[in-house]
Target: CBM6 domain-containing protein
Amino acid sequence: MIMKGYPQYLWFVVLALLLVCTGCSNEGETEDDNNQHVKVEGFYVKGLENVNACVEFDVEVDAAGTYTLHVMGYNYSKGTATCSLYVNGQKQSQLGFQEQSNWSEKVVQVSLAAGINQIAFQRDAGDNGQFYLDYIEID
Model:
């Protein structure tokens, strides 16, 4: 697997490169920790509030199977903020983050093929609110 065990700030160096290379019609952007409303060390992704905005990760696993995906997100809106989770171009689920004053982790099971898989968080027409993304982990 890749992306596990690296310092948190390196995620967003990779993420920034991914944002430049994605085929999304609207891409997220990184923000540093000087933001007054969000407490985070390093960077996070924002800009996922427009329909079709997305951020994509390439994740490599040795064997096909079901893996646990950990998503650290923040709801910066009233009510529940949602985004759609895609694996290899297929919608898997809609993640919802409750209104709160801190980051929270969502844990979902995803089926991955052996080799490189694409995991995307996308704002679909049925999603709502403002969702920030800090990091993901696969195990």
User: Anything to note?
Assistant: The domain at 8-138 is CATH 2.60.120.260 (Jelly Rolls). The longest strand covers residues 65-75. Residues 5-14, 16-38 have pLDDT under 50 and may be disordered. Strands lie at 26-27, 29-32, 43-46, 53-61, 65-75, 81-87, 90-97, 104-112, 115-122, 131-138.
